[in-house]
Amino acid sequence: MRTPDERFANLPGFAFRPHYLEWRGYRVHYLDEGNGNRTFLCLHGEPTWSYLYRRMIPHFVASGARVVAPDFVGFGRSDKAEDEATYTFDFHRDFLLSFIEEKGLKNITLVVQDWGGLLGLTLPMELPERFERLLLMNTALATGDVPLSEGFVAWRAYVARNPDLACGKLLARSCPQLSAAEAAAYDAPFPDTRYKAGVRRFPPLVPEKYDDPGASISRKARDWLQSSWKGESFMAIGAKDPVLGLPVMNELRQSIRNCPPPLILAEGGHFLQEWGEEVARAALEHWKQP
Fold it and tell me: pTM for the complete prediction?
């Protein structure tokens, strides 16, 4: 299914031109702003889309970089499969690997949050010559050998009880600074519940057991990032996130070689990109330091 383009008209703060490519028969949307040798690859999570990065993109572009932000299949302006079984850990990961190759991305600063990190942090070990920096926000690696947080288990149960998840209301609760129009922009991709199969599918896809799909590759990524990652990192944490907050992020930091102490936003929530101006400025300033 394809969300009608008119649902994306006049979204506040989102005057970026859409770009598309074909992947496995799906039309996939991505943003592509700026130019330069360095590329910021911005990966959204659940249940959001590239709109989430609108506050950060201008800062990255102003630094002289190119910024690329795809919408996962099932999200944003990308096509949506109605069958939940379409969406698997490998399906989404394969898309990201193909996307990087297709667009010839290099000198990548990987910017991740939520599922953007669960998937995205498994990529640098596959293409180490393409990645040079990590910007991590409220995310994790789901390795199947660490119990899932109580907050996440509660979230997964909530989504199961609410198949027509009200994305705009969820963002409004988590980010009280949003205007009504900004919150509504998170509902734009989904005309009705049929379009939300990808949204419903992400929570049960998080690897919980040792042999769950995605767990082995996530453990491999954790070990590689801990021992072999040679790039720079910057971590920002929204302290009010009940699912992927300080305890989870501090644990993740131990898995990232040479990751410096994090920037902690006391009022920041799970969707930390909505506090993104401060995060982007701090990360860019950190990387300017000798």
Answer: 0.96
